[in-house]
Amino acid sequence: MAGLTHIYCGDGKGKTTAALGLAVRCAGSGRQVLLLQFFKDGKSSEFAALARVPGVTVIPQTRSFGFSWTLSPAEKEEARTYYAGLLEEAFARAGDFDLLVLDEAMSALSTGMIGEARLLELLAGRKADLEVVMTGRDPSRALLDAADYVTEMKLVKHPFQRGVPAREGIEY
Q1: Which residue has the higher pLDDT, 56 or 70?
Q2: What is the full DSSP assignment across the chain?
Q3: What is the structure's pLDDT at 1?
Q4: Between 168 and 81, whose confidence is greater?
Q5: How far apart are alpha carbons 54 and 43 in whole angstroms?
Q6: Rounded to two decimals, what is the model's pTM?
Q7: Residue 110: burial class (beta carbons within 10 Å; 0-12, 13-18, 19+)
Q8: Separation CA 147–CA 73 (nearest Å)
């Protein structure tokens, strides 16, 4: 079976939820899943559940840098090196997996934390049967062209528009 590329994008809620739903489906069929979440420190509620799902492996984040627009040039370079290293690790380890989820890959690209040319090289050079899912807002034309599936989540209405903060177990 050939591995295909999925993008879940848009300004609506559900990108990570869709990617993790596919990860659970894949693991439930006896396959192996590798998950890398850029910019997330492992404290989101989904990690408690994923830790109990056989067949799902999470690449842990050991560093936190805060928001990209608050970083000094030196801190940005340190963050770039770290996130680029995580991306390389994910593809290096993916040979033993059936599905690779790169959650918030578009955010990592748009903030310059990973390079688009390198991501495209890694996608093109991956093992033939590795399925890859990427999430985030505003994918580039090159990534859209490289994808087999593109699903856009469109924001129509959300409680944050009324001032309701993110709720544990629902938004994080």
Answers
A1: 56
A2: ----EEEEEESSTTHHHHHHHHHHHHHHTT--EEEEETT--S-STHHHHHTTSTTEEE---------GGG--HHHHHHHHHHHHHHHHHHHHHGGG-SEEEEETHHHHHHTTSS-HHHHHHHHHHS-TT-EEEEE-S---HHHHHH-SEEEEE--S--GGGGTPPP-TTTT-
A3: 66
A4: 81
A5: 19
A6: 0.91
A7: middle
A8: 32
